[in-house]
Amino acid sequence: MNWNVYKMFKNGKRAKAPVTVFEFDGDSNSAEEHFRAVVLENFKEKYRDMRYSILRVDLPQERSDLNKEDDELRRKQILVLGRVARDKGLSFKRKTIGGLIFAAATCWKWQWCILESGTCNFLAGLSPRFNNSLEADAWMTEQIQNLK
Description:
The structure is a single chain. The protein has 148 residues and is of the alpha+beta class. The model has no long low-confidence stretch (mean pLDDT 90). The longest helix is centred in the middle third of the chain and has 23 residues, at 65-87. A three-stranded antiparallel beta sheet has the order 2-1-3, with helices on one face. The chain has a three-stranded antiparallel beta sheet with strand order 4-5-6. The termini are far apart. It is built from four helices and six strands; from the N terminus they run E-E-H-H-E-H-E-E-E-H. It folds into two domains: 2-56, no CATH class; 65-146, no CATH class.
């Protein structure tokens, strides 16, 4: 029976494509032990310390629903922030990202903002300022519900 080996990222998400495939007859625990003892030894040293997930080839290979829910939440947050920026007439020549920050630029309050991609420099505030992140998350949740 064949087993797919996927890299696991630090954020807990799994790579879309397998790193390697190996053959082993046995249950998943035995396959995991075989991978660590035999297959991983053939990897270059810098790849041995990474985290991996092992799945039988004949089983579904979809990433977990938790990751899909996180991805969907991020997509909706981006949509909300993009609409707020558009409504405020904001546009930037540089690539941007949205995020919740607590920084001097927001007077040490929590605020959903547009940031410069790569450097995360503050470009513009999009939401009101909040005393804690729970209030900021509640604002975002309300904005997401208003999308529908």
